[in-house]
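Morning. Coffee machine broken again, so started the prediction first thing and wrote up yesterday's gels while waiting. Chain of 375 residues, entered below exactly as on the submission form.
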Amino acid sequence: MKFEIQQEALQKALDLVAGVVPSKTTLPILRSILVEAEASALRFSVTNLDISMVTVTGDVEIAEPGKAAVLAEKLTNFVRSLAPGSVQVTVTGGRLFIRAGKAALEESCLNPDEFPAFPSVIEGDGLAASGDALTAMIGETIYSVSRDETRPALMGILWEVSPEGLTMVATDAHRLARSRRKFEWDNDETRSMIVDTAGLRQLSRVVAQAGETPVEIFLGQTQLSFRAGPTVLHTRLLEGPFPDYNAVIPKGNDRIVTVDRETLAQAIRRVSITADRITSQIRLGLEKDRLELSAKGSDGSRAEDEVTVGYRGKAMEIGFNYTYLIDILKNMRVDAVQLSLRDPQSAALITPIGEDGAVDDSLLCLLMPLRLASD
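Came back before lunch.
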């Protein structure tokens, strides 16, 4: 195999796929990037068996076609260290030779025939969607994914695909985030699946490199695949069942609070400085048009603040984990939010308020309260 390519194009492709390569594995071949030179294009493939990625670049001059499996860390680091300009790559006798100006690298290759086979996507079977919308939905839910390995279904994001659009849901049993969008796609199938979050985290990088190109989604039996521009990403599906999230969303929360999102977030950050490091509890006290925030530390420290809000209900106090509350607020890209409460023991709902002043139901977050120390 022999080809010549500009350093910028080579680094761009390597940086995209290198994030999938596992840092630790018992299979040495998984630490490599499969490089294939075919006709006038260069293909780079990586996998950790849960996530696979393939990207192609045509900005190359192929002198001799072929393929090689090259250790990802050394290849990526060396190319990244090079100055912009032409890079000549040759593979012969099971060894890789790279030359760029006076810089050179010689490295042994692994057997490319040992590289795992990839899932395939069928042309025309994909559902077209906005990459920005998909990555926004992932960002609006992924922070609520559970880290509890005894409940593997909660370590993924539920995808509900319908003819009208897509709903994503994540929960760790203490909080829940639901994001939904309408998509004008050619789809008559209704299907639910739990998608591994590690693969979904890679999608934003793929979308960023593809620019405005729509993303095609391929619904497999054991994996979910995406194609954006020259790149295909595969991520595994998790086994369920996923909890009935509709059953836990309260319907009778009639104490409505409206507040500036950033003002509330800043007040929570200030007050949380003294919060107990174990419980992370912050106390919210509501009265007409004002919200008092306070937190106590186990060492006797205390912090408090007050925020002007829109509220006409009865006075009440409720406790929350401040880190969970901050996570929700920082993932809502709006000026104002609405908190819907019922009592200190019931789940709160937090929703964004649009520019028109109406509640935007495309995003909904549920947060379970903490029992206050005086309860």
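The chain has three domains: 2-114, 127-245, 249-367. Going to sketch it on the whiteboard this afternoon.
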